[in-house]
Every structure is written in C-alpha cells, then in structure tokens.
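Hello forum,

I keep getting stuck at the same step: I have a sequence, I want structure tokens, and every attempt I make locally crashes halfway through. Rather than fight my setup again tonight, could one of you with a working pipeline run this one for me? It's a single chain of 414 residues.
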Amino acid sequence: MSSLTNKHIILGVTGGIAAYKAADLVRRLRDAGAEVRVVMTRAATEFVGALTFQALSGHKVHLDLLDADAEAAMSHIELARWADAVLIAPATANTLAKITQGLADDLLSTLCLATKAPLCLAPSMNHVMWSDAHTQANIKLLQQGGIKIFGPTSGSQACGETGEGRMLEPLQLVEQLAQIFSTGSLQGCRLLITAGPTFEAIDPVRFIGNRSSGKMGYALAQAAAEAGAQVTLVSGPVALATPDRVTRINVESAAQMHQAVMQHIASQNIFIACAAVADYRPAQSQPQKIKKTADKLQIDLVKNPDILGEVASMSQPPFCIGFAAETENLRQHAQQKLATKKLHMIAANDVSSQDSGFNSEFNALHIFWPDGDVQLEKASKPQIARQMISLVAQHYSQNQTQKKIHEKNSTQDS
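Reply #2:
Ran it on my machine without issues. Output:
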C-alpha cells in the first residue's frame, strides 16, 4: 500500500449512500500512516452515525461551523491549518455544485475555501446525475481550478441501475491520494540533508546544545523523498522516526556531522544544511564528571568546522541551500550569509517567536537566492517543507540548464 505516513488528512463525508464506504476508508487511511480528522455534513449523519467515525479515527467528528471547543470558536480555520490534504468521499452532485460556486453554508464547504491544502473529490451519484450537463460542467471547472477528481467508476448502484457514478473503493482512493504527494520533481537526484542539533560534550554527562527539534529537517527529507530524490539524512540527536525511503546517519557532535557529510557529499547533487550546528565546542572535554565545588566554572570554547561553507567552497559543489535561524534583522543576516558563503539559496526563519521555529509544529520561511526571494507563510512544517522542496527543484533545474548552456558555449569557444 502507498504511504501516507505523518500526513494530516481531513475526510469530508457528505450525504450519499456511499457514506458507508467512508468508514472503511478511515481505517485504510490510518493503515497507510495518515492521521485522520472527519468532517460530516448533517445529511451524511442520516446514512452513518458520527460515533462510527469517531471510533475509527480516534478523534472527535466535526459537524458545526461554529464550535466553542475550537480555536477562536472557528473549526474551519483550525482544521484548514492542520490539513495536508482534504478528501471528500463521497462527494455528491450537490457538493460538487457548492464547491464550484464557492458556497460556504456549512463547516465542510467553508473549510474547502479556507484551506491551502490540496482538495480531492471522490464523486458518487446516480449515473444519470453524473452524466448531466451541469455536473460535467462543474467537474471541468473544478479541474481547471486545480482540484483533484478521483473517479467515479462504473458498476451497479444502490438504485438498482448500472452505470458510471460509483465511488472508487477505499484502497483505490488511498492510492490516488498518496500520489498527490509524489511529485517526481527531484526524480533521479541525490540529496544530502543535515537536521537537528549537535551536542558538544563538556564531560560525560553535560553538553552544549541548542533547542532544535529536527522537525523541519526531517520534514524536508520526507518531502524530498516524495519528490523522487535519493535522500541521505545526517541527523543530530532527536526523538523522531526516520522518514520513508530515507537513509539516516546518526551523529552527535559537529565534528561527527562534518565527517559524515564530507564522506558522502562527493556523490550528491543537492545539499541542504538544515541542522542547527553548534558554532563552538569546549576546547577539551573532561573524561570524568566535573564536580560542583567552585562558585564559577570557566570553559574555553573553540570554533567548530563550517560544514556548509566547506561544501559550498568545493571545486565542484552541489546545489547548496543553507538555513539562517535569526532573532533580528532576518533579511540582512540571511542575504549576508547567502553572499559570503556563495550559496544557491538560503531559508531564513525567525526563531524568536514561540509560534514557529524551534520545537514548534509550525514554521514560516523567507527564502532568498542571488536575484530574488519569496516568503512562505506560516504553516505546518510538512507543508512548508513541500513548498520549499518544490522551489528547490525549480531552481536546481534552472541551475542545471544554465550549466549545460555554459558547458556547450565553452566547448564551442575551444
């Protein structure tokens, strides 16, 4: 089965007889690794009870547009931020029409307008309703707007007739949903990424470290793998599971991370330095625990190797992307680092806020390159990672094209 590991999926269930299949779909989505939240229309509850979906998903079912238990009493905003994808199954003819027209008269339809996550619809209706000109016109408009349409298929229907309009089976929907995350934009590329903190030993029980959780780097590794890259992840000490299809190398100190990167970098096409590497380490790590006897303790620090700078300075460097975690003057510091280290791109984030950055589930990035920049607004780290990998793939492709043109011109000149 295709993987949806760590994906946040909202399943919208509307008022059609195929709603009974949505119960099995929840189980199949969870089997594929997804975390599922169910949003039902009132009509859907006439076919299957909300308690069924609560038991299967392990979470409260959302029914009401205004919810006193939700953030600011607005479920559509809270869910819109949470979702990696929204799948409506079954999607009735009425639902298709509402989304086409941008109506927002219940929680599900309002959520569809409020989210930036991919929207996927699994139509289910009588074959005559499906073939109606209005329904087909709506389908075309939805597809033109970038909405994914899964199915329908032909077969026997609840009305006793046979024809096109039958909802795809749950396993088919899981497969198609998983495919929207597999872009192939980095197919064939070898990508090395560093993530997490480094710990610099003071003695056997103490260290100098930082607040990095590794979540952003791991999200980037997963997004790159979904984009088709062969990913090697050099990770500092974190409590995170290795993403699917990613080779992980565990390290602790900056020196170990430097060694691991330099051992593997020669074969890489892209290098993303996302780890929060300690700038300094104790000049000497004590072999035994330092006892608390003196009122003051002085520790001499020495600089750690500049991993990103060394990689970017190679005679034939890979496409290099750095990170700049800043608490002030974000643009200035990021652009300075971009120029000084001769990077292809740099992603800057403000870590002074508790709402994003270190240890948060959310992030916001300002990405710079030599002749431009773009801001990625606050979103979950997996969503930010997919946006960033898409941007990296675009710029890497342009860089490769420019290299080929330069090599061709050099050959002609010689």
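The first helix runs from residue 19 to 31. If your local run keeps crashing, start a new thread with the error log.
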